[in-house]
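Hi everyone, sorry if this is the wrong subforum. Our group has a chain we'd like a structural model of before ordering constructs, and none of us has done structure prediction before. Sequence below.
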Amino acid sequence: MLNWILVGLLVLAIVGIGALAMLIDSGVEDKHKSRFVYALFSLFGLIGVVFMMVEDKSAFVYGDWASSGKNGGKKSKQYAEVSEADDGGPAEAEATTKAGGASSGDGDVDGSKAQSSASVETPDGRDCDVCPPMVRLTGADTVIGTLFREAGQGGPILGPLQEAKVLAYSIGRYEITVGQFEAFVKEKSYKPANTCRIGKEVREGTTFRSPGFDQSPDHPVVCVSWYDAAAYAEWLTRKTGRQYDVANEVEWEHAARAGSLDSFATGKQIHGAQAQYRAVGQNRNGTSNVGTFTSNKFGLYDVHGNAAEMIRNCWNTSESPTTVTTGECSSRTVKGGSWASTAGHLHFAARAPIGIAEADNTVGFRVVRHRE
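Answer:
Right subforum, don't worry. Here is the predicted structure as tokens:
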């Protein structure tokens, strides 16, 4: 209503300016001319006031988010599926409990607020007692990679900036834990990799149970191969009747970014109190419990550091990350950086290869669930 009144005043001011200009141009006595000039300038001033008072409801949309000058960030139309809480804000993804009964900590509250397309369909997002907690994401247009790809000699390989589209899917809130993988191994009498790379040395007889440092059931599983990760996902599929898999690069990066266009979930920089990695001045010789650090805006933990994560894409630097080559190949792709990585390798767009039969004590995985 206010805007219509202001528009009316604007129209009157413009008409008044035209009328005064015609009167001045037609010739008036000098003693009256100054009054008309003052009136003319007053109408110009009125127009300026009207422009300042009109409420700006326009929005600038980029990627997943729309921003408004007066009201801060708003969800763009593609996230219309997200439920709204009673107070009008986005419904928060519920805090979950990790396998083994460990508390998820305060990070769930901090990380699952904010603008996200994430919600869980059950209280903890699991399909069974030993299944991983999942976060459900709606379909969306997304952005992956980076425009600034110069990493310097010895720096990480960074994927190119690209737009992509993802359908609705769920992704693990945490990296698969030692306890969750152990449940699979015991139930299936599965024989996982028994050779693992520890630093520069490949050690025979080394398994996920002894990766070269102490772990609890709530640490991310490492020293597993691509075959092990794929077998675990297939086990979940058969156990639950729902389609599980290892994430592809677009699914992983979309979920890790949670709408961010920065290099990290923490912004343009990351420091040692925000992730388990080789930060300056901190000596970290192994993984930490999953969920130790604050989650991203979708409620995912450890998207930077802790265990680097194998993803489904075959490794090929000449192909776009949006081209998901998943057939037989000698190497798969790794994302996210690990406890042994420097900050540059934690970049959302950073990617590295790993042989399909190789196991490494810095590399684990996270699963997705399709057909939501």
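For your construct planning: The first strand starts at residue 60 and ends at 62. The chain has two domains: 2-53, 107-369.
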